[in-house]
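YM 10:42: Putative membrane protein sequence, as discussed on the call
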Amino acid sequence: MSPNPPRVREPILNLPTAITLSLAVLIGIHALRLFLSEETDFTLIIDWAVIPARWSVAFGGVRIDEIMQALREGVPDDTISPMMALAQYVLAQEEGRPWTALTYAFLHGSWAHVLMNGVWLAAFGTPIVRRCGAPRFFILMAVSAVCGAVFYAFMNPTQVLPMIGASGAVSGLMAAASWFIFSPPAWHWEGRLAQPHERPRETLGHMVRNRQVLIFLGIWFAANYVFAFVQPVGMMDASIAWEAHIGGFLAGLAIFPLLDPLPARPSRISA
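YM 10:58: structure's back
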């Protein structure tokens, strides 16, 4: 037997299968769209993206003429005609298309958009999968995406421009991970230091006293404010749907304790 056993090469990216599959689907869909004609791609976006005005007419009792009036009041004169034409096209059949609350997350506006979401998905989704497993990971992603879409539509009921991207779902992953990745180091039952995804979940009381959690939340909300209202020149090629980010984040924060298979860190007991 050789005294120097061969070295086992470790993979450069040790991503869970669920994360690899998610990235492959998002990148693959965007790549396939490059082979579509502009007309076909436009139809694809309109059919599968979130368009709040469509939901307002179908489910909210809003009349089409109210949407048109809102467009006349809120759109610059040089863009009224294109926006009106888009509104008439989108609202012609008065279909709600509720499934778009999920399908919009599979579409992206550019390679920068899909790659940015992919990086954050890998970073925050990996500890979620390792902690909760693939089924609960996909449930968390779906609920966060839907809540992001609903909150965006609630805040923009007359919007006729399509909203796409997995940012709402990714925001939910960020919120879910904040429950445990900033927890104090703890010992695993095997006698070693626990990995971040193995640490007990923080309680709300612990989270509001955890400086790392507060800094993370502050930076996240500040970044959303900057990109939503300041929009640094040259950094993005489209408007940021910050409402979808907020909706997805709050959803992930709320439902993760229900999906988490590990118990929360016990509160300190004083004698």
